Each structure stands twice: as C-alpha cells, then as structure tokens.
Amino acid sequence: MTALSKNRRLFGSLLASLLAQLATGRTKNRHLMGWLLASPMALVLMVFLVLPIVMIVIVSFWGATEFSIYPAFQWDNYQFLLTSPVTYKVFLNTFKYAVLTWAFTLTIGFTVAYFLAFHVRSLTWQIALFLLCTIPFWTSNIIRMISWIPFLGRNGIANSTLMSMGVIDEPLEWLLYSDFSVILAFVHLYTLFMVVPIFNTMMRIDRSLIEAAYDSGATGWQTLTNVIIPLCKPGIMIGSIFVVTLVMGDFITVRFMSGSQSANVGRLISNDIGLLQYPSAAATAVILLITVLMVIGLLLRFVDIRKEL
Amino acid sequence: MDRRPRSFYVLAAFFTLFLLFLYGPTFTIAILSFQGPEGGLTFPMRGVSLHWFRDLFEQQAVGDIWGSFGRSFVLGLMVMVTTVVVSVMGGLAFRKRFAGSAVLFYLVVTSLVIPSILVSLGVGLIFSQSGLDVHWATSGFGSQLTWTLPFGLLIMFAVFNRFDKSYEEAARDQGASAWQTIRHVVLPIIAPSLIGVALFGFTLSYDEFARTLLTAGSHNTLPLEIYGMTTNVTTPVIFALGTLTTAFSLVVIGVFLATVWTMNRRRARQGSDAGQGMV
C-alpha cells in the first residue's frame, strides 16, 4: 500500500514538473521533456512488445508435456527444429510466398502509383482515387479473404466464365485452395502497402527534374528508369519492408486460402500453439523473428525511413 | 490542356482493372448475401431474400456475434483514443531529438514489422505464466496498441515534417507559453491529421485478428468470431455478416473522411486573410 502511494506520489510529482515546464515554457532539459512525452509509448512497447519477446525467448528453452509447460534450460526445441527437414521446407515455402508476393505487389503497386502521381492531373482527383485505393486497408482482411470463395471455387465465377467461353472443358481445381489462391490473396491484401509509400515519394519528386530529362532528350522510358525509379527507391523499400514482413509473419491467409494444404512458418507456430506446445512454438517464433529482422536489416541499408515520410 | 499521351489510356485501363480486383470480390459477396434461403456460397442466385441477414439475429444460427460486435466497437474506441493521445505525445517528443530517441524509434519499427503472432504468443504467455486472465480489454487492448501506435507515430512524423515552425515562433514571440502554443497553435493546425490517426486507430483495432487471437480471452472480438465461423459455417450467413461489417467499416471511414473534409473547408473559409485585406 505504501509502495503504491509512493509510486503515485512520484508519478504525481513527475506530472506536476511536466506541467510546470510546459506552463513556464522554459524547458531546460529537452531530453527530460522528450522522455516524459514519449513515456506512454515507451511503456506500451516495453510491456507489450519487449517483454513478450523476452518471454518468448525464455519459453523457447522450456520443456513441455502433453498438458503443460515447465521451466527448464534445454536446447531440445531448437535442436528438433533445426534438424527437421520439415523446417527447411516450410521456411523455403515462406520465402517463396514472400518473393512472389513482393514481385507482384511491387509491379502492380508501382504502376498504380505512377498513374496516380504522373497521369492524373488534378489534385482533387488524385486524392479521390488514392483514397479509393486505400479504403480496403481499413476493412477486415478476413472478410476480404472469404470474398474470394465465390470467385475461385469449383463452381465459382472464374470457372463458370471460362467454361462458358469455351476456354476450358472442366473446372480448374487449382484456383482455390492452392498456392495460386494464397499468392492471389496476398497480392489482393497487401498491394496497398506498396501503393501508398511509392505514391508518397513520387509526389515529392520535383517536376522540373522530369522536364529537365525531357529537355535533355530522354525518352519517356529513359526518364522512368533513370530519373523516376531511382528517386522512388525509398518508397519502394518501405513498401517492400511492409509486404515482406506481413507475408513472412502471416499464418491466417495461408491457412485459409490453401485450405490447410500448404504451410509457412506462421502456420507451424500456430499449429504448435493449437497443440499447447508453447516452447516449440516459441523456438520457431524466435527463428522467424531473427529471419525477419535480418531481411529488414538488409532492406533498411537502402533507406532512412524517418526522412522519407 | 494538351492531349493525353497514349500511355495514359493504357495506365488508366490498368488502374481500372486494379480497382476491379480490389473491390470485385467484396461486391460479389455483397450480392451473394442476398441469396434466397436455398442458395449456396456461389452463383447462381436462388431467389433474392433477406433470409441470411435475419439469421444473424438468431443466436443459435451464428453464435454471439452481437456481443462480439459490441466488444470490438468498445475496444476500437479505446484503442482509437489511446493511439491519438500517445502518438501526439510521441510526435512532440521526437521533435526534441532527445537522447535515446533512436532506440525508441527502432522499437517502434520493430513493433510494426514483428509478425503479429509473436505479439499474440508472447503476451498470452506472460499473462498465463503470471496467473492473470487474458481479456480483450487488457491484454487484447495492449497487443493491438503495438500495431496502431507505430502507424500513429509515423503519421505524426509525416505531419511534423511538413509543419511550419514559424507559427510556433510567432506564438512564442507574442508571449504564449509552451503549453499555450501547443493548445492554441499546434493542435488546431494538426487536427485534421489527428482525425486520420483516429481512423487508423479505430479501424485497425476493429479488424485486427492475429494480435488478438491469443490475447482476447474467453470473450471473442468480431474478427475472431468471424474466423471461427469460417471453419464451421457453410451458408451465405457468413457473407451477410461480412457485408454488414464491411458496410459498418465503410460508414466509419465515411464519417472520418467527412469530418476531415468539413474541417478543411471551414479552415479555408475562416483561415488567414493575409494578402486579401485592404492595403
């Protein structure tokens, strides 16, 4: 009780000094002010990001019975994980999804952003069309996945259209519950993450640079490859980071769109969780986190995010 | 206006196809949710009815979707308010370039790129090992903040990168205190962007699945409820639910956008008269 009231008093005095500093306007110590203002964010991230990661690392060394988990320090989980051929297959599959989705979202996202930034001439239209591209981002991913079923199913729109056009004689089986539908759903869900940052960097390109390129005799294609694409690199990188991490960490899209027939690392983790094998799930999660952070580290070498917003 | 190049029409066609790709499936399930009582998950439509929407109001058909909707709504509001307040404070903090801000920034980036299931698993483990019950309003709330706060902060970066510091200097020169400057100058100027942060906070929370999966406890949020339905419901009732919640999302987005639009218009009308007055 005393500890609590002491804490409260400490917090109160901190708050009072913050308010006093704000009121007098004489903030001698910008570091103190900065930390005070940033403390709620730091606190949330400490409790719900750093501690969970620490917990996962700890539990990854624990042991498990069929019903419970117990503290230990053993490398069994990692040993099992790193010697199982399934792990490598699943990681390879995860990379395959990430690379394919990245390639499609980049191509589509860049083209869409290019159209919006350089071909739509009035700002009002630019904003309106841009919003149209981003609205699905604010709706449910699960619903957007479900909505592919009537399209891709055995008797779905795609099959019946192709059959009535005479392109195929019997329904294509690989449209739904296959790698195809997984990639399609990823592209559908995540292209926005490419469009937004690339559009953002494109809008910041000084238009006189493009004039200059034309005046110097560059063709449209040369301007694109020698001027616009290099200047869009930061946006491309940010979009890539989003897409790659979202795909690599995903478990629900792969499960739903492959009809539980394909696996990625996220599904490996969620399956272990379903079986209450938390230590094994934690070990897989640690390896996944390291992999993702390595990929990000690689991509971040090319761009300084804070400057590019 | 000069003639449009041919590439414009090619790209415009591409863009139209993209929009079709983006919205087509959603429109399809919107149509299919009006299936007749005999209809299935795909075309053809067997009659047109509100049968499946009626089903949503019967407990035994779909479980507790209205309870989960209520929880998702409240949680969305909680996350929204927290995200706005904490992001603004964070944005103001980062302008001061305080010692250690780089570390915090890397944490924010980590929060953004970390696979959601790790947050879910980690928070779930912490709660279960310390004997606390996971609940959507505690563990679920915190887990969702790790997803919305980075977005909020990045938006604040974008806002403050474009912020004209001379407004603040003017306020200071006229004797405003630091708090007065923030309250009467900075906040009103960035208000429309705060609506944007709020939109992110609410909708990302309302739709969040992975981070709530192991942290919501025994009472599901709406996305969890819908996910549960995908495994055992094989009737268009799931389309009806999808249509209804998408419609709700669209209404929310519409309200937010309309608010920004009105604010900007009012600002344009009542804004500065500099350069327009009599000399």
Question: Please, could you describe this protein's structure?
Answer:
- The complex is a heterodimer of chains A (309) and B (279).
- Chain A has a single domain, classed as MetI-like fold (Orthogonal Bundle).
- In chain A, 74% of the residues lie in helices and 1% in strands.
- Chain A contains 14 helices and two strands, in the order ααββαααααααααααα.
- Chain A has a two-stranded antiparallel sheet with strand order 1-2.
- In chain A, a hairpin with a 4-residue loop joins β1 (63-64) and β2 (69-70).
- Chain A starts with a helix and ends in a 9-residue tail after the last helix.
- The model of chain A has no long low-confidence stretch (mean pLDDT 86).
- Chain B is mainly α.
- Chain B has a domain at 64-232: MetI-like (MetI-like fold).
- Helices cover 73% and strands 0% of the residues of chain B.
- Chain B is globular, with a radius of gyration of 24 Å.
- Chain A: One of its GO terms (biological process) is transmembrane transport.
- Chain A: The chain crosses the membrane at residues 41-64, 97-117, 123-139, 180-199, 236-258, 278-303.
- Chain A: Keywords: Cell membrane, Membrane, Transmembrane, Transmembrane helix, Transport.
Keywords:
heterodimer; A: 309 residues; mainly alpha; 14 helices; 2 strands; B: 279 residues; MetI-like fold; MetI-like (chain B); transmembrane helix (chain B)
